[in-house]
Every structure is written in structure tokens, then in C-alpha cells.
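sry for the spam today, last one i promise. C-alpha cells for design, 115 residues
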């Protein structure tokens, strides 16, 4: 978890299929004990995106049509879409706007948003 905290874009994503802890570029940990890892990540101050409360079609749209998080690597140039990498804040804002629970990541400042 320490490496995820010091890596740009490191975060915990929780969905219907379990969790993925994005640690570094190409390094992640997946599992199904969502509440235990969520509690630990929240206590450590790691950004957490929990999309379990969203409608399935909404999550599919975000995951398939939206960008991936740039973890430990530079973001792609905007505009961001499928097959591109965006900063964690931009992806988190999209999930937040759809109704997902987002912790330890304030909304992206409007001046910093890229579309």
C-alpha cells in the first residue's frame, strides 16, 4: 500500500467483481475482500473509488468508453477516451459525477479539467 501512496495515480478501485489496488505502472493487486482493503486504504489516506452502487450500464459506459487511469506514467494528451490514459482526478470526477463514492481525492478544479 505504501508504494501506491507514493505513485502518481495509485488508488483502490472497487466494483461488483471485487477490488483492484493500483500500486505502480503494471503492478496491481486484485481480490474480493472489499471491505477489509477499503478500510485499510481509507485509513492510509489512499484514494478510493467505489462504484458498487452505480447501475451496471453506467459502470460499463465509464469503463469501456472512458479513459484508464495513468498509474506511474504520464497521462495521454486530451481529449481522453477509450484506450487513453488520464490523470486519476479526471477519472475520479467522471465516476463521482455518475454517483460513485470517491474518497481522499477532491473534485478536480474546473481550470485544471481537460476534455
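last one done:
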Amino acid at each position: 500500500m505504501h508504494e501506491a501512496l507514493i505513485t502518481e495515480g495509485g488508488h483502490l478501485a472497487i466494483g461488483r467483481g471485487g477490488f483492484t489496488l493500483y500500486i505502480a505502472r503494471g503492478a496491481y493487486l486484485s481480490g474480493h475482500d472489499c471491505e477489509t482493503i477499503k478500510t485499510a486504504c481509507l485509513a492510509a489516506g489512499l484514494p478510493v473509488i467505489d462504484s458498487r452502487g452505480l447501475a451496471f450500464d453506467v459502470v460499463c459506459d465509464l469503463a469501456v468508453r472512458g479513459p484508464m487511469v495513468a498509474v506511474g506514467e504520464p497521462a495521454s494528451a486530451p481529449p481522453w477516451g477509450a484506450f487513453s490514459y488520464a490523470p486519476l482526478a479526471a477519472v475520479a470526477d467522471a465516476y463521482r459525477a455518475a454517483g460513485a463514492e470517491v474518497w481522499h481525492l477532491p473534485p478536480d478544479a474546473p481550470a485544471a479539467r481537460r476534455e
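The CA atoms of residues 2 and 64 lie 29 Å apart. ok im logging off now
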